[in-house]
Amino acid sequence: MHTQYVVGVTAVLEIEGLRKTYRSRRKGARRALDGFDMVVEAGQVHGFLGPNGSGKTTTLRTLLGLIRPNGGRMAILGEEVPARLSSVAGRVGAIVESPQFFPHFSAQDTLSLLADAGEVPQARVAEVLELVGLRDRAKERVKTYSLGMKQRLAVASALLKNPQLLILDEPANGLDPGGIREMRDLMRQLSASGMTVVLSSHILGEVQQICDSVTIISLGRRVASGPVAEVLAQHSGGGVVVRLESAGDLSSAAQVLVAAGARVDLKPDHLLVTGVDKPAWVTRTLAGRELYVSELAPVTVDLESVFLELTGTAPVAGQHRQVDQSVEVPA
Length: 331
Prior knowledge:
- The structure is a single chain.
- This protein is of the alpha/beta class.
- The protein has two domains: 11-230, Rossmann fold (3-Layer(aba) Sandwich); 237-298, Alpha-Beta Plaits (2-Layer Sandwich), CATH 3.30.70.
- The chain is 31% helix and 27% strand.
- It has helices at 56-63, 85-88, 107-117, 123-131, 147-159, 177-192, 204-210, 228-234, 250-259, 279-287, 303-311; strands spanning 11-24, 28-41, 45-49, 71-76, 79-81, 92-95, 165-169, 196-200, 213-218, 221-227, 240-244, 263-266, 271-274, 293-298.
- Strands 6-7-8-3-9-10 form a six-stranded mixed β-sheet, with helices on both faces. A four-stranded antiparallel β-sheet has the order 2-1-4-5. The chain has a four-stranded antiparallel β-sheet with strand order 12-13-11-14, covered by helices on one side.
- α3 packs across α4 and α4 (123-131) crosses α5.
- The protein is elongated.
- Mean pLDDT is 87; it is low at 1-9.
- Belongs to the ABC transporter superfamily.
- Keywords: ATP-binding, Nucleotide-binding, Transport.
- Pfam families: ABC_tran.
- Residues 13-244 form the ABC transporter domain.
- This is ABC transporter ATP-binding protein.
């Protein structure tokens, strides 16, 4: 059973104006983080999203004291980091990138060693093995594990301390569909217990299902943040899909709506109408000209399409986008 946490501050994680510049003789200066901001509230599952090279992993490594920033402010559980990182390290569990384990050790041995090092009761080892689905394979050597099983072990190691804040970088890496669903259920279970989870993932459909809120980073800057539903709503455009009883009337209907002040995109089998306050206005306007609507539905967007739009990483026909080749998207 997990502990119910009471956090003294609402924001478990705060980042303000974080900057990190890498310099090399060959490539010169590269801004990995360019004034990045992020806030994660207590008890949330928070999705941290960004394309390759966006600064996502640099942010996580900086938070954990593995990289020294060039500027900005960070706080975990109300404590300034890196200055006070030692005082909160015991309440933070994290896996960043692909952790390495001794290949000839079993999962049981690995976690037992980590528990001893962290002064965690050995009974907790059996609990986390059960949680991540490795109970029946716990005594097998790690070198025999698949990528997905090693990922489960990594999550188990991060859970050993029963942390208040859990940071997971691509926890579904290598998992099969069943494993991905189990990981999703585990994240919900942990959140329900009061744990705050920061989840970095490229499986955006999963993020949309599991996360309460998201932050999207591109080129070292925050390009979107907030509850998932609000981020999606902000980029739906408020449009409606309109279908008529007779597809032959689409062109006439488009002309009527444009004349009445709407913006209309004529598609082969429907109209995409924007610039209207209430969808019912479309129905009334067309009915007044004896054009009858058979379907009226709000435009819905998914997190993947919003992500591609905001980070400028949508595929372009005939082009092969290179790693780090994001583009700045006008605000």
